[in-house]
Structure formats: structure tokens, C-alpha cells
Amino acid sequence: MLCRVAAWSFAACFGAASLVAATLGAATPIVAYIVAVCLVIWPAHAGLELGPFANSDTPKAAIAITTRLDREQTKTEDEVKSQTDDSTTASSPIVAPTQNPAAPSDTSARLASLEPAEPAVAPPPAAEPFGLAAVPVAFGNVLTKWSGVEADIRADNDILARCRGEIETCPAPARDFLAIIDQGRKLTGRARIGVINRAVNMAIEPMSDMAQWGVPDRWSAPLETFTTHRGDCEDYAIAKYVALTQAGIPAADIKLVIIRNTEADEDHAVVAVHADGGWIMLDNRWLTLVEDNDMAKAIPLFVLDAGGVRQFTPAAIAGARRQSAPASLGL
Whose CA, among 11, 37, 73, 253, lies 20 to 30 Å from 176? Predict the structure, then answer.
């Protein structure tokens, strides 16, 4: 193509020179001058570079072709650059949303969903058995009886301490009671609670206070009960209360509870022991360890421990609270 353009240009220039010579009748020098001018002009018109930058060793056709391709490549690069600049200018108003560093990414959310959930935290156990509120008692028959038996328990504990040092001179009731305590000390947890509950239940014959003492109600310390091996429900409960404490269970985890047995329509005494996040009820009527919530036929009235006597509030027992201490807790 470049060759054809160059040929046409030269032909046109030579034809013009011939026409001028024929019209003017000019001499040969004028025609030669015009031809020389054509020889200078047509290479530039054809896109050839003839000068100090041209390589004399390179054929003119190759120079023409290379120069033309370089110009087309430069033109193409300029067009691409122009299109890129236009695209950048057009897209510049669009600002990419900035991710909030505090907000979790989708990847973080997926990873978090694979992590094991923290386990749920169990609520702290209720301060009193049955999970009910109780208020301190400042006076009354229950407080009087409990204060009296606490004094007897302290005396029994002194005897038990001496017996551990001089077992040969220890009274028989104390030795029997110490044997039960020692069984519990060898165990832990529910096993300790269960063996003491069973041993005390098996060691005492149930008998009312009227039949044994000739009075409607009498609360006995453990060594008095183990002297006769007879007693009613509160005597069982008091003996278990002391044995569990001597066996190593914290005093704060042991309560003596007076309930109303709605099935027999009578008051009854049991022991509550805090274990495994709940309250276990020890009853002289059975050897099974029962949870406080499983005693559906029991209405709690009083709770007794080293801190004194507390009475469950009327709202807690739904109007079934007793207004005075029970006359007898015997079975």
C-alpha cells in the first residue's frame, strides 16, 4: 500500500513537471529542477524518513513499513490511554464502601459460628431448701427447743472428742455414734450422705415422745437417742445433722427442716443437705435420697441450722404456714 502511494505521488509530480514544460516550453533544466523537487517531496508525503535518523543500510520499503506501523501503534496506545482515562474519570465519583473495623466480616461471622458455644452458666443454688424465702425467728417454741438442743449437741461433741483419744473409756452410745460418723468419713458426696442416712435410720427404733418419755414433745441430742436407740422424727433428724457435720460436710450445707406432711396431716422433721447444686432430703421414713422439689406433699414451715431458726414466709408457703410451733413432731 505504501509503495503504491509513493508511486502515485511520484507519477503525479512527474506529470506536473511534464505539463509545465509543455505549456511553457521550458528547457530541460527547469524540468529537471521540478523532478528534483518531486524526489524530495514524495518520500515525505509517503511517510519515509530520509535524513540523519534514517539507517542507510535499511531498505526504504522496510523503513516505510516500520515507520507506518510505529505510528499506528502509537495512535492505538494513545486511544487506549484516552479510553482508560475516560473510564477512570467516569468511575471516580463512585467511592468503594469502607468496612467498619468494629463490624465483623462475613468470614469472621462464619468462623464464629463454628466455634463451640460457651456453655450455659448455672444459677447459684437457693439459699434455703425448696428455693423459698425465709425470715429469722426471734422468739417462739421452735427457737426455744432448738436453742436447748444446740447446747446438748455441744456437750455431745465434747464427749465425742474425748472418745477419739480414749476409746476404751468412751460410753457405748458415743462409740455407736462414732462408728456411723467414721463410715461417712471414708466416703464423699452422695455416698457419704447415703451411708449416714441409712445407718441412723437402722440404728433407731421409731417411737413417739409420749410413749418413750411421757411428754408430748421432746427434742433429744444424739447421745441420748443412741442410749435408748429410740426416737421420733426430730430425733432422727438431729442425729443425722450432727453425724454429717462430724463426717466433714460444712455446717452451712446442712439444715434441719420442719415441714407439714399434708398426706398424714401432721408436722414432720427432716434433714436437708446441699449437694450437686440442689438440696437432698433425708427422711426417717425411707432410705432413698430425695430432692426437695420431689416432696410434693410437704409444706416447709421452719429451717434450722447453726445460724438459728428461720420461718418460711406466708407468701412462700401460699397461706399454709403454721402460726405456732408444732405441739409434737412424732410419727
Answer: 253
- Interval 25-45: pLDDT, tens: 544 445 444 544 554 444 444
Collapsing DSSP to helix, strand or coil, 167 comes out as: helix
Q: How far, CA to CA in Å, does 32 sit from each of 10, 36, 39, 253?
A: 14, 6, 10, 133
pLDDT given for residue 314 in this prediction: 80
Tell me the per-residue pLDDT of 298-331, one tens digit each, with 9 for 90 and over.
Answer: 999 999 999 999 999 886 666 444 433 443 443 3
Residue (of 19, 20, 13, 79) closest to 40 by Cα position: 13
CB 259 within 8 A of CB 268: yes
Residue 330 CA to residue 216 CA, distance in Å, equals 8
Tell me the longest C-alpha to C-alpha distance in the chain: 174
Do residues 322 and 313 touch, judged by C-beta distance below 8 A?
no
What pTM did the predictor assign? 0.60
pLDDT exceeds 90 at position 248 = yes
Residues 285, 275 contacting (CB under 8 angstroms): no
